[in-house]
Amino acid sequence: MSPDIVFEVSDFVAVFNQTIEYTYPSVSIVGELANLKVSKGRWLYFDVKDDSASVRFFGTVYNLPGPLEDGMRIQVRGTPRLHPQFGFSVSVQQITPVGEGAIKRAADLLKAKLQTEGLFDAARKRPLPYPPQRIGLIASAESAAYADFMKILGHRWAGIDIVHCDVQVQGESAPEQIINALTRLNAEAGLEAIVLIRGGGSADDLQSFSIEQVVRAVAASRVPVLAAIGHEIDESLVELAADVRASTPSNAAELLVPDKRAVQAMIAEQLRIAQNTMLHTVQMNQNTLSQDVQQLQARMQHCVTTHRSELAVRRQVIHGYDPRRILAAGYAIVSRGGSRIRSITEAEKGLSLQITLQDGQLTAVVTDVHKV
Amino acid sequence: MENMATQKKYHQLREELDQLLAWFDQDQLDVDEALKKYEAATKLADQMEVYLKTAENSIQKLTKQK
């Protein structure tokens, strides 16, 4: 039996850390969260335990996926370390809720927190351009969600410029990749919408989309975000923070662009309505014009008829003035010195009068005057 | 038919006719003059009749065109 190696305390801590760093540079430990404590709003202390053991962890609040509470089952990745003063702990790199119950509980806590901040308020929602000319797409190029979205989009509306960020949509690196993609697409010029999609999966598969940093990145996006994560029944916090939520990736394509055939049919229908309206207007004007012309003709005819009646009256008057007609009936015109005599008071015995008959004139002398 | 420029308007014909008819209302009537006036009035009435007939024909022609 070899004799024990005797270390100075500092040396032991150094050797221990060197050995553990070499053997287990990074460990992932699963267990129940206990004694969670946040110090000075920044430092994070908690234990992860099972029935017979407990391990102490140290980190910062930035390592939190969202609000957590004691009793939740979590998986923590970190670096084991023996601190010269505070003893053994694992420095946290990433914390992930484990199991459907824990994931849901963590999501509920984060949802309540972000809801209080107003991150999901309807007033924050912005409409998407319809249809957009240029979009950003965050999806895994290998996924069925990506294939479905591209297929439906191309089928409905061609010619959209798509800037695609191929990201992992589950696993440890997914949140960081999604956040980086959002940052990159927000720096792109001319993007009108960002589409964030992922197909269905377990609660564990989808939990990257309910991590606080990811949800905040979506809410903070300068470009409006359309999100479709999982199936319709799955509710990720990213979808609540997005401007528009689609039930599936295919539905996202349907919400983003119209169906070109429906648009063509609508345009054809509008054209038909416009043609009918124009035809109707022309017909109405033709009818009005025809009525106007008829009215004009009727008035003109009335005018002619009225004048003809007046003329007939005048003809009767003219006929009455025909001197030959009067004289032919046996009447005579009696004059004295060119002036007509109408009464016996204008004549006297011995006066010479001119008498005009139908065929000539004669001169007569008044021999007697009798009043009738 | 008379040239349009020299043709009298209907209302001018009517005024002339009315003046002729007014002449017959005076006391001193010369039969020869009355005969002349009567013939002139009849001629004016005939002209007016032609005028109205022409107008009526024009209206009927336009109506048929429609």
Explained architecture:
The complex is a heterodimer of chains A (372) and B (66). Chain A is of the alpha/beta class and 372 residues long. In chain A, 41% of the residues lie in helices and 25% in strands. Chain A has helices spanning 9-23, 100-117, 144-156, 174-187, 203-206, 212-219, 237-241, 249-256, 260-320, 323-328, and strands at residues 27-39, 43-49, 54-60, 73-83, 87-97, 134-139, 161-166, 193-198, 225-229, 244-245, 333-336, 339-340, 352-357, 360-365. In chain A, the strands form 3 sheets. Chain A has a 5-stranded mixed barrel with strand order 1-2-3-5-4. In chain A, a hairpin with a 2-residue loop joins strand 11 and strand 12 (339-340). Chain A is rod-shaped and about 200 Å long. With 66 residues, chain B is mostly helical. Chain B has helices at 10-23, 31-65. In chain B, helix 1 (10-23) packs antiparallel against helix 2. Chain B starts with 9 loop residues before the first helix and ends with a helix. The model of chain B is unreliable at 1-5 (pLDDT under 50). Classes of the chains: A alpha/beta (372), B mainly alpha (66). Chains A and B meet through helix 9, helix 10 and strand 12 of A and helix 1 and helix 2 of B.
